[in-house]
Amino acid sequence: MLFCLSLAWRDEAEGTSRVGGVLKAILNVEQGDGHQGAVILWGAALSWLQRLERKKDAVWEFRFLLVRQDVTSGLLELHSTPWSSCQPLFPDDNRCKEFYNTGRSQRTASSFQIDLSTLLSQKYSELETDENSIYRPCYPCLPHTGVRRYYRPVVLTVRAGDDQICVQVPPALVQRILLNTPPDKLHKTIAPASEVRFIQVVADRISSILTPMKNTFLLTVRSHFQCDDNSIPVIQNFLLLDFISLES
């Protein structure tokens, strides 16, 4: 059980910050013994922010958090995982009463215990595999390895007159071309009160790209040729590096 004190990134949009393209929020909390710490919210856990803001004076129960040591300060931090949850405790809940009745002044130290085998498995052991030889989740790696979906690589055919080439488009650039729409949001609405879904926006975007003479695009392509002994190309690959839409 924890008491929420503040959001560390309150000056930024909705208490969140973007680090390496991943959204996170840092929540300052306090235990019943007065010990303060931080809960790092990642991914879907960012939806907790509005509830936490509405019930600032409540004692919250967090479940399935990951304990990690901050590489800079050396202090232990709590991180949300895809399985984490939180809910406020009612004032008449015995756990809430116990939280406030705890003698904070009598507890000046805290400890974290972990058995040796678990520590070694987290630090040095190879990931286990299931019956299909698929690697099991790396729980110590969370939250940076949370499940994320990507578009499949695509092949873009570029024509100029009678000439054409096939250009490979990597997943990250596919998402950028599709207006930075994540693949896991395709069937969601673009706004709470809207009936338009992201998949419709993506379909319109693809249609505009494939419509001749409707738009002009500037492509940056990296080429790779492999020639035989007679300098005749036997392998040629083109990789798309950048895609910019120009007004026609």
TrEMBL record:
InterPro entries documented for this protein? FAM35A, SHLD2_C, SHLD2_OB2
Any idea where the Shieldin complex subunit 2 second OB fold domain is?
A: 11-74
Pfam families with a match to the protein in the record: OB_SHLD2_2nd, SHLD2_C
Domain (Shieldin complex subunit 2 C-terminal) spans 125-243
Which cellular components does GO assign to this protein?
nucleus; site of double-strand break
Q: What are its GO biological-process terms?
A: regulation of double-strand break repair via homologous recombination
The protein in question is named Shieldin complex subunit 2 C-terminal domain-containing protein
| Source organism | Cyprinus carpio (Common carp)
